[in-house]
């Protein structure tokens, strides 16, 4: 089966190596407000809405970029882990991939609808941060669980 939209299989391990530590660090940063490193840099910002300062548009700002790097690693790693070919990519795996993506989308937007209805204030901001990553996270869990279950049934 030829699928031109998937990454080569060799990127799957790279994806997991990026994704797992980034998720752990992201949870530490978000839930515990703990960043193991402070990595301040001057960066270009299209918009920087400071809490107690004037808004900046198209400006250079000083920022701790550690959380941005963790977010980028989580997204890139998740995409590589989720959308790299399996060793034996066939129609059955393509079907599992499609169903898992559909499930992940439904569950992700179900969480979002629930959050819009019942969570307010700064808690909603944290939910939106998590929502950026839950689609990939749910997809990876379901896809790999079904693959594991299928492999055990065959063995």
Give the SSE layout:
Blueprint: H1 11-31, E1 40-48, E2 56-64, H2 66-82, H3 91-118, H4 122-154
Antiparallel strand pairs: 1-2
Helix pairs in contact: 1-2, 2-4, 3-4
List its salient traits.
155 residues
Provide the helix percentage.
55-70%
Q: Terminal Cα separation, in Å? A: 23 Å
Number of strands: 2
Mean pLDDT: 92
Strand order in the sheet with the most strands: 1-2
Strand content of the residues, in percent?
5-15%
**Number of helical elements:** 4
Order of helices and strands: HEEHHH
Written account of the structure:
14% of the residues are buried. The protein is mainly α and 155 residues long. The chain starts with 10 loop residues before the first helix and ends with a helix. It has a two-stranded antiparallel ribbon with strand order 1-2. It is 64% helix and 12% strand. It is built from four helices and two strands, in the order H-E-E-H-H-H. Strand 1 and strand 2 form a beta hairpin.
